[in-house]
Amino acid sequence: MPENRPTRRMLEEALLAGEKRYRVFVEQLPVGVYRTTPDGKIIEANTALARMLGLETPASLLRYNVEDFYIKKTDRTRLLKKLESKSSHFTEFELRRVDGRRFWVRDYSQSVKGPDGAFKYFDGILLDITELKRAKKRVEQALRKYRAGNEELKGLSLTDDLTGLNNRRGFFTFGQQQMKIVKRLRKGVFLLYIDVDQLKRTNDTYGHPAGDRVLTSVATMLRETLRESDLVARIGGDEFAILAMRSKRGGEKNLRSRLEEKIRIHNLGNPRRFHLALSIGIVRYDPRKFASLEEFLAHGDYLMYQEKRTKALSLP
Fold first, then answer.
1. Measured between alpha carbons, how far apart are the two ends of the chain, in Å?
2. Which of 58, 218, 242, 314 could be stapled to 45 by a disulfide with Cβ–Cβ 3.0 to 4.6 Å?
3. The domain containing residue 63 runs over which residues?
4. Within this chain, do residues 157 and 288 fall inside the same structural domain, yes or no?
5. Is 1 within the bounds of a domain?
6. What pLDDT digit, counting tens, does each position of 36-67 carry?
7. pLDDT digit string, tens, across residues 255-266
8. pLDDT for res 308
9. Can you give the CATH number for the domain in which 90 is found?
10. Alpha carbon distance 192, 298 (integer Å)
């Protein structure tokens, strides 16, 4: 009997069918997808990217160089520099459409090297974040205008005096705007509710200046770990809240891991009285479960106390 093995023709047809499915999938994505050469030549793109840049078809985009669309050439230089030391990187910068209109993007890119180890291509995905940037700018402009006319009303400030983060009022002011964007663009967002463990003991044992230093250390750590577009606030004496927009599932676990590593490094380099320990409640937004930002925050608070209670029960 003849062996039941695929022929070369069958393998070629299967390969072509797989490539066709991949191209159809990429073409249907609502985000821009590209492949470029190290010198900036665009060799692959989908329709979403072409339209994002003001063109009708991917074919019309191929005659351009990526540098034609950058507002600041240094943004591309920095991106390529990052990709020299690691295979993938994400960043945010401003681009210009062919009609001159500016817009902001978040670029998720990775390098593809040839057999000789030299860069061959750069593959990536572009997400238009212009609406998010504009909304944040509108809120910031409104806030500056409000503060200019109401400097005496410190009780209405949206900033925490000690840490420089948003306070509880600021969290809800900016958070309501961010949640509207999440619902309109159907983006993923999760919330971290953080409590600083044993802060009262630190205050009682070493004094409130020591406790204040612990709180400012937490604030610095959060700024260093989070994106500029994430909303971070000190919403109570020893409690912090974060709204982080992430389209990819698992982002909350990665963020927690980075925070825990920051804490470990901090504690290695500081006296015992300034050591940090955090209890964290993490919850991903589900519009079917949470009717408001208050309910979303309350659930994060509940999960944080569950973790704190588990820690207390595990102590000898």
1. 72
2. 58
3. 8-128
4. yes
5. no
6. 999 999 998 999 999 999 998 999 998 999 99
7. 888 888 988 998
8. 86
9. 3.30.450.20
10. 11
